[in-house]
Amino acid sequence: FKRISFKGKSKDELVEMGETFNHMIDLLQTNYEKQEQFVSNASHELKTPLTIIESYADLLKRRGMERPDLFDESIEAIHSEAIRMREMTEQLLLLAKHQEQWNIKLEKINLIEFMAESAKVFQNAYHRNIEIHSKDEIFATSDVQKLKQLLFIFLDNARKYSDEFIAVYIGKTGNEAYVRIEDRGIGIPKNELEKVFDRFYRVDKARTRKQGGSGLGLSVAKEIADAIHVRIEMDSLEGRGTTVTLFLPSK
Ligand code: ADP
């Protein structure tokens, strides 16, 4: 903030300054409330996996000796909840850090090679096949690490919310290259499409609970996309599947 001097100002100028001042206070108040909501949501979401870990650890401590059959289930739950907490913490740190500190390095990327490589990593990790469709060589200007992160958020959602088919189409329209990710999964109801990019928002918690996740993926995606000038379009039909198109600068 710059210091403002009220000396020698006319009445009209003072009234105008007063209005600006009120506007600034409103903005600060809204930002503060958003921040407060964010911290409260984050604590709440982190508490769930922590409670699960605590109760399984407690169960093992009390009954582990006499009930070795509890062992596998408990370790499995503790392990997957710990992973969920780590992922959530990483996403929260990314959201808390300002984009200016992200150290974006733009370069020319061969999208087909890039996609083939990313799909290989994904397939090895999750044993899910990805079909890649493309006609010509397509180039985009982007940051390799950030683009990979962005792509993985959408591929991971396609995996979590569908059983079989995931396809990626790469192409060009005008000055932009595009990457379209298609799944034939559970889809998203029309009236929820806008909201899924909000922090912590999940369509029907019961439906999505078993897939893990935090409701943070798409808000992180939005931040990354802004930083590397990617436009996101999302289309979905409930029960049929979801299509996400990323438009990238291609100069
Ligand atoms: P999460 O960690 O819950 O996946 P996201 O922010 O990535 O968080 O997504 C928010 C919500 O949007 C998800 O909980 C899910 O309900 C819905 N969603 C996102 N991608 C898809 C998809 N490909 N198919 C169906 N639902 C999706």
Automatic annotation (TrEMBL):
<keyword id="KW-1003">Cell membrane</keyword>
<dbReference type="GO" id="GO:0005886">
    <property type="term" value="C:plasma membrane"/>
</dbReference>
<keyword id="KW-0418">Kinase</keyword>
<keyword id="KW-0902">Two-component regulatory system</keyword>
<keyword id="KW-0472">Membrane</keyword>
<dbReference type="GO" id="GO:0000155">
    <property type="term" value="F:phosphorelay sensor kinase activity"/>
</dbReference>
<keyword id="KW-0812">Transmembrane</keyword>
<keyword id="KW-0597">Phosphoprotein</keyword>
<keyword id="KW-1133">Transmembrane helix</keyword>
<feature type="domain" description="HAMP">
    <location>
        <begin position="1"/>
        <end position="33"/>
    </location>
</feature>
<keyword id="KW-0808">Transferase</keyword>
<protein>
    <recommendedName>
        <fullName>histidine kinase</fullName>
        <ecNumber>2.7.13.3</ecNumber>
    </recommendedName>
</protein>
<keyword id="KW-0547">Nucleotide-binding</keyword>
<feature type="domain" description="Histidine kinase">
    <location>
        <begin position="41"/>
        <end position="251"/>
    </location>
</feature>
<dbReference type="GO" id="GO:0005524">
    <property type="term" value="F:ATP binding"/>
</dbReference>
<keyword id="KW-0067">ATP-binding</keyword>
